[in-house]
Write a structure and sequence with these properties.
By secondary structure, the chain is an alpha/beta fold. The chain has a single domain, classed as YjeF N-terminal domain (Rossmann fold), CATH 3.40.50. It is built from 6 helices and 7 strands. α6 links the parallel β6 and β7. α2 crosses α3 and α3 runs parallel beside α4. The relative contact order is 0.19. The structure holds ligand NAX and potassium ion (K). Ligand NAX binds next to α1, α2 and α3. Pfam families: YjeF_N. One of its GO terms (molecular function) is nucleotide binding. Its cofactor is K(+).
């Protein structure tokens, strides 16, 4: 069953209010995304992975992936597209404070629009269901860098720049090899297999009771 983005936010909020906190959803999202990626490659040991993250919870999922990938011995660089004090949510900030205690993960922050990496894998955790309007800097430059770089590309929840409700794109958007979306498929995403690549919808532990009166 495909659901709307609005239904997804309602289910997420109801699950949180039941006590299954958003930080647990985020943890499961990042963990299952890494499981799919590791399955794809067999091993990510010594792979150079660059994770671009935005200031919302899509970026939070990307941060969880960074921690798990470090556990799989990947060489992980996280590029926060802004400054840590501007991270929007408690659960994403909480994950950032964890990464700051992990020398195994390289952190890059700020509003730079000049990127110079040679990754084996890029993870796009820039924008998810919270996309609104045309893409602003520094997100725009990050999306351009991703599209210009020849490597494997993995989208967290949805390729950034695509509206997961309609499948329509902003003027800039990423084109990925694999997309893992969470809880249930959002209506617009499967319309754009040209941008998602292999597409999976994965459960993240939200109690089915959180769907009552929503679906
Ligand atoms: N729905 C769920 O149950 C879950 C959602 N999670 C993740 O949370 C994501 C949604 O998080 P958010 O609601 O924080 O939204 P996003 O992380 O998609 O980003 C929203 C932020 O990006 C910025 N932004 C929006 N449009 C922009 C544009 N055009 N140019 C530049 N900046 C722009 C805004 O400042 C906004 O705060 C999902 O996509 C998913 O990855 C997960 O943590 C797991 C649970
Ligand atoms: K994304």
């Amino acid at each position: 069953m495909e659901i709307t983005v609005d239904q997804m936010y309602q289910i997420e909020n109801k699950g949180h209010d039941m006590g299954f906190l958003k930080k647990f959803m985020m943890e499961n999202a990042g963990a299952v995304a890494v499981r799919r990626l590791v399955e794809k490659f067999g091993s990510v040991d010594s792979k150079n992975v660059v994770i671009f993250i935005g200031m919302g919870n899509n970026g939070g999922d990307g941060q969880v992936m960074a921690r798990h990938l470090a556990g799989h011995n990947a060489n992980v660089t996280v590029v926060l597209l802004g400054t840590p004090d501007k991270i929007k949510t408690e659960e994403s900030s909480w994950n950032w404070s964890l990464l700051e205690k992990m020398p195994s993960v390289k952190l890059v922050t700020g509003n730079s629009t000049d990127f110079d990496f040679k990754p084996d894998i890029i993870i796009d955790g820039i924008l998810g269901t919270g996309i609104n309007g045309d893409i602003r800097e520094p997100y725009a430059s990050a999306i351009n860098f991703i599209n210009q770089t020849n490597c494997y590309k993995f989208a967290v929840d949805v390729p950034s720049g695509m509206d997961p409700q309609t499948g329509e794109t902003a003027s800039l958007f990423t084109k990925c090899d694999m997309t893992v979306t969470f809880h249930k498929m959002k209506q617009g995403i499967p319309k754009r297999k040209d941008l998602t690549g292999e597409l999976f919808a994965e459960k993240i532990g939200i109690p089915p009771e959180a769907e009552i009166d929503v679906l």
